[in-house]
Amino acid sequence: MANPTPNTTASRTSPSPETLALARTLWDRRKELLLSREDLAELSGVSRSMVRRIEQGDVFNPGLDNINRLLAVLGLTLEVSKRPGWKPAALIQEKADRKRATNSKAGDRGKG
Q1: How far is CA 33 from the centre of its chain?
Q2: Residue 94 and residue 89: Cα distance in Å, rounded?
Q3: Which of 1, 29, 69, 97 could form a disulfide with 44 if both were Cys (CB 3.0 to 4.6 A apart)?
């Protein structure tokens, strides 16, 4: 079988690089374990068509439960960490600045 290729025409948006990386990891690991999509679907309880769509990056929201079921069967885990070099978006930064200013003013009032 050929490498998975994302089909963005059926998606509401183009898959993110992270989605495509997850799709590729699942596909690679399934192949490494010599499992068919049918095998993975049966073992995980995720439908074969959903497995295919996830592996191809062709699903808008596969659901965390589905991803965790697939990862468990494949002996993988999902890790969440801060992005290196991440900068807060302008709105988040403005809110944090306002909060700091409010806290600073409240602290100044308590000193007098």
Answers
A1: 22
A2: 9
A3: 69
Say whether pLDDT at 1 is over 60. Answer: no
Residues whose CB falls within 8 Å of the CB of residue 38, separated by 6 or more in sequence, listed in order: 48
Q: Nearest to residue 44, comparing CAs of 63, 57, 59?
A: 63
Q: Per the structure block, which two tokens stand in for 49?
A: 């068509």
pLDDT at 11 over 50: no
Unique residue bearing structure tokens 């079921």: 69
Give the mean model confidence (pLDDT) for residues 69-83.
94
Q: Cα 75 to chain center, whole Å?
A: 17
Neighbours of 36 (CB within 10 A): 13
Q: Which of 44, 47, 67, 54 is nearest to 24 (CA)?
A: 54
Please indicate, yes or no, whether the overall pTM of this predicted structure exceeds 0.85: no
Asked if 54 and 26 touch (Cβ cutoff 8 Å), the reply is yes
